[in-house]
Design goal:
Elements lengths: L1 H22 L1 H4 L5 H8 L17 H16 L14 H9 L3 E3 L5 E3 L5 H17 L2 H14 L4 H14 L2 H14 L3 H13 L3 H14 L4 H13 L3 H12 L1 H14 L3 H14 L4 H13 L3 H22 L2
Antiparallel strand pairs: 1-2
Length: about 325
């Protein structure tokens, strides 16, 4: 009886954890700059340029599988040979300083002297594959080998910065991006360096790098939105609006500027930009919803009621069009 009760409790606990994981699956992966996430949630590109995501991945399945994997480890059923360990700063230092060594087995290390550019590029391509697979520890290792063999391999420095950023090593990421930019000033590396500076609170330097990136890629949405974020942090709202508008047009330019102002607690200024968006698109539900809330918050009840009425009408019309 006791054994059955224990099993029942364990099953109930597992199901509870799984249900909680499913409920939070939409947010558990939300790592990164909060301002950039706000723009991304509205459909705008922002942040550092990343390696493409592996096709066929399912974040929800991964989240749901986590509790069961944890129980396997808890009861000693995991297989250590596939165990993934968290990389530390010491690991990163080891990767940067280590020579190129291939481990053939647990007790034997064979040193290979690889000095040709092709070998560096092989490590680069392998590191890129690890980035795509989300295996950031291995990516750091391979890309560190690539830049060790060929210090002038710009793309390896850039991708190494991306890998470090994914691991949460902001300073190391910035250093790698700076090395890449010194070798070659292309739009992607300048954007990555600029966004890294932005994340570290160096907004003026971020604006400088992102403006240079925008000159090289005048229509790149990600670069322009990052520039808008940096301008917002410097309090240059008009410049931020111009950058956001260049990225995705006047409607989203107003909406994104308003969202940032609202995040900074500048309700009156946010209202002004939401109203500008409403002038462009009178039935825009994002603008109407935020206006209804903000007007209520600042005590302008009549305007709040008007915005809510317009929102209800827009929602009803949209439902009628879709046949719902």
């Amino acid at each position: 009886m006791t054994k059955r009760r224990l099993i029942a409790v364990l099953i109930a606990f597992i199901l509870t954890v799984a249900a909680t994981a499913m409920w939070s699956a939409a947010t558990i992966e939300r790592e990164g700059d909060p301002d950039a996430i706000v723009l991304e949630d509205s459909g705008s590109e922002a942040g550092a340029a990343e390696a493409p995501q592996k096709k066929g991945g399912n974040k929800v399945v991964k989240v749901l599988a986590a509790p069961f994997k944890a129980f396997g480890k808890l009861f000693g059923r995991g297989d250590d040979k596939n165990k993934v360990y968290r990389m530390t700063e010491k690991d990163a230092e080891r990767f940067e300083s280590a020579g190129v060594t291939r481990i053939d087995d647990a007790t034997t290390a064979t040193v290979k002297k690889e000095t040709s550019a092709s070998s560096a590029r092989e490590h680069l391509e392998l590191g890129r594959e690890y980035l795509v697979d989300g295996r950031y520890n291995e990516a750091v290792s391979e890309l560190s080998m690539a830049v060790s063999l060929d210090p002038k391999l710009t793309e390896a420095h850039n991708l190494l910065g991306v890998a470090y950023d994914k691991k949460g090593f902001g300073d190391r990421a910035k250093d790698s991006f700076e090395r890449a930019v010194k070798l070659q000033e292309d739009a992607d590396t300048l954007n990555n360096l600029g966004f890294s500076l932005y994340e570290n609170g160096n907004y003026r330097a971020a604006v400088d790098r992102l403006k240079r990136a925008a000159k090289l890629a005048p229509t790149d949405e990600r670069i322009l939105n990052n520039l808008g974020l940096a301008y917002c942090r410097l309090g240059k709202v008009d410049e931020a609006y111009k950058a956001f508008t260049r990225a995705t047009g006047p409607l989203n330019g107003n909406l994104n500027t308003a969202k940032m102002l609202e995040r900074f607690g500048r309700e009156d200024d946010a209202i002004r930009y939401y109203e500008a968006a409403r002038q462009i698109d009178p039935v825009n539900t994002i603008a109407l919803r935020r206006l209804a809330d903000l007007y209520q918050r600042v005590g302008r009840t009549a305007e709040s009621i008007d915005a809510r009425a317009a929102l209800a009408l827009a929602s009803n019309n949209a439902s009628a069009i879709t046949g719902r």
